[in-house]
Amino acid sequence: MTTGTDITALAAAGARAPGTPADSGTEPGGAPRPAGTAATAAAVLDASTTADAPDADAPAAQAPDTAAPGAPDTASDTGTASATPAPAPEPGAPGRSAAAALAVVRGLKAALVRSVAILALLALWEIAPRAGLVDSTFLPPISEVAVAWWELALDGQLAEHTEASLTRSFGGFGIAVLVAVPLGLLIGWYRPVADVLGPLLELFRNTAALALLPVFVLLLGIGETSKVSIVVYACVWPILLNTISAVRNADPTLIRLARSMDLSTPRLFQKVILPASVPTIFTGIRLAGAISILVLVAAEMIGAKAGLGYLINASQFNFAIPQMYAGIITISAIGVAFNQLLVTVERRLSLWRVPASA
Questions:
Q1: Which of the chain's termini has less CB crowding within 10 Å, N or C?
Q2: Are residues 285 and 177 in contact, defined by beta-carbon separation less than 8 angstroms?
Q3: What are the backbone angles phi and psi of residue 203, rounded to the nearest 5°?
Q4: Contact 216, 229 (CB under 8 A)
Q5: At 224, phi and psi to the nearest 5?
Q6: What's the rounded Cα separation, in Å, for the pair 150 and 141?
Q7: How far apart are CA 149 and CA 324, in angstroms?
Q8: Cβ contacts of residue 317 below 8 Å, gap of 6+?
Q9: Residue ranges of the alpha helices (H) in the chain?
């Protein structure tokens, strides 16, 4: 923008106004113009233009912020968004995934190690009869036994016999636990009771349960009572003897500390004796669980009209050998499952124990 001062300077220098004809280098009237006049005018005009033009290096004037309150700043947000890096993955996620995968691999490896012997036995059972190593009439391949087991399951016979056996076995086992554990605590804690009942216990615990089966049948009949009673008798002894041993071997230091705190006898049993006795008591309970099934099967073979023992015995008489082995396998599976259940209960009641590996 040209000011009045600049125009005056231009006029004094002889510069032409805008819109006039091009400079011819002569004064009006044909007189020659001085040589430095045009150059001087151009220099003055250039200087005025440069002074009026905005400086390119100077920062631009900021416009007033007329945006509504709370409105996002577009330029600022855009720059921030472009400058902000993408969120990095959580540092612990790959580590947790690797740990989970490692745990799965370890579990599969442990399961494979535990089952390799059983798989080898099943493979031998399948190969030996087919290779002629044993008579397939008396030891059919495991595949034929599996087919016979499936047929018994579809017919409902397997479920019927299994239900009868489990009712008798678990009934007698439960009664034995309810009787033997309190009696063992009583005998183990009170010495006079142990002195009175000790000889009687030594007499009966060395008498086999199956040897007394005819006595139970004669006294209680051939029905359910005699079978449940023989199971109770067989299961009582391992539970009773292990409970007595657990009470007598309780840590005397803990007992003295509890007595120094003036704990009553029921509280002493609840806080000290029972927790310390759980592992040994459950050892006897697990032994009793296995005995309950074995003794019951033997009792069902002698006199019964239902049960897995009856199924095995009847299959032998009818020469249905695959069905006989199917009954045996069912008994083994029930025994393993029952023992695993008892182990789980024992661990649940022994959470206070520190593993030996620790």
A1: C
A2: yes
A3: -70, -50
A4: yes
A5: -70, -30
A6: 15
A7: 9
A8: none
A9: 4-13, 35-52, 74-83, 92-130, 142-155, 157-189, 191-205, 213-220, 224-248, 252-260, 265-268, 274-302, 308-317, 321-349
Would the CA dihedral through 56, 62, 67, 73 be positive or negative? Answer: positive
Please give the structure tokens belonging to residue 247.
């009470």
- Report residue 176's pLDDT band, with 50, 70 and 90 as the boundaries: very high
Q: How far is CA 197 from CA 183, 193, 204, in A?
A: 11, 6, 11
Contact, 278 vs 243, CB < 8 A?
no
Please name the residue that has the structure tokens 């002569």: 26
**What φ, ψ does residue 340 adopt, rounded to 5°?**
-65, -35
Rounded Cα gap, residues 72 and 81, in angstroms: 12
Whole-angstrom distance, CA of residue 335 vs CA of residue 276: 27
Listed in sequence order, the residues at least 6 apart from 153 whose beta carbon sits closer than 8 Å to its beta carbon are 159
pLDDT, tens digit, for every residue of 86-124? 555 555 556 677 777 788 888 888 878 888 888 888 899
Tens-place pLDDT, residues 202-226? 888 878 888 888 888 888 877 788 8
Residue 26: beta bridge partners?
32
Residues contacting 174, CB < 8 A, separation 6+: none
Burial of 201 (0-12, 13-18, 19+ CB in 10 A): middle
- Rounded CA-CA distance 131/319 in Å is 22
φ, ψ dihedrals at 26, nearest 5°: -125, 155
Which token pair is 79? 């720059």
pLDDT of residue 38: 41
Rg of the chain in Å (alpha carbons): 51
Q: Please check whether residue 134 is in contact with residue 128, taking contact to mean a CB–CB distance below 8 angstroms.
A: yes
Q: Is 136 helix (H, G, I), strand (E, B) or coil?
A: coil
pTM of the model: 0.63
| CB-CB contact of 172 with 216 (8 Å) | no
Report yes or no: 283 and 342 within 8 Å, Cβ to Cβ.
no
Q: Could you tell me how many residues make up the chain?
A: 358
In three-state secondary structure terms, 15 is: coil
